Amino acid sequence: MTAFFALATSLLWGLADFGGGLLTRRTPALTVVVASQSIAAVVLGAIVLATGGWSAAGPQLWFAVAAGLVGPVALLSFYKALALGPMGVVSPLGSLAVAVPIGVGLLLGERPGLVQIAGIAVAVAGVVLAGGPQLRGAPVQRQAILLTLIAAAGFGTVFVLIAEASSSVTGLFLALFVQRVTNVVTGGAALAVSVRHGGRALPEGGFPWASLPALAFVGLADVAANGTYSVAAQHGPVTVAAVLASLYPVVTALAARGVLRERLRAVQATGAALALVGTVLLATG
Hints:
It is a single chain. This protein has one domain (2-284). Helix content is 76%, strand content 0%. The protein contains twelve helices and no strands. The chain is globular. The mean pLDDT is 80. This is EamA domain-containing protein.
């Protein structure tokens, strides 16, 4: 069950990142984040009302609030790092997010077997290579490296927090709703500050109404990924769930290949293959 839900997480996050990347080509990144998360918050709010999720409210919701505060900071740091580039270095470094939940799992006493340890090593190497690391070329700014590490730590922290935010299905819906509302408030505040300092909130043609279905998909896929990861982490070793869930860069690369006809570099194809091998080792270990 852990492997199934963790792999579902990587699929959903990978597709959400791909969709978000396409949207940010035409719309400011902060606007994409706020709009997509707002749609997700509305849908989750309706689900919480329909399922009576408010009855599951408790102190654990503070984990969801914390995840909602950390998430936008990590995302903005990652976008800024990508802008500074080179992307071929920044993207694979973002995969280091997996180190946070793995470290927490080990501190909590999880001890993966030899096959799982091998699977973790192979899968992480595959994820890094699938990002297409730039081995030569322009120098990397220290600020880009720092921002990427901040983003990776933030993403990994969200992994840990959302897994602790609920212990039931109705509680999970409520936790995801609280997280999304916090995301919107935090992201909206950052967007307001950006506009005040001369940034753009909308593309030249105004609000991209034609992109609403895509925005909804990105927001809801991200929500679903958080939910499946929470289930995976609660029903099996966090170390295994975190590594399998971190395969989303492979999904993004394959989506770009299939939809945009982007050609995978040899190093990316090798990474995808290694990630698959690591997945098999983890699932069978």
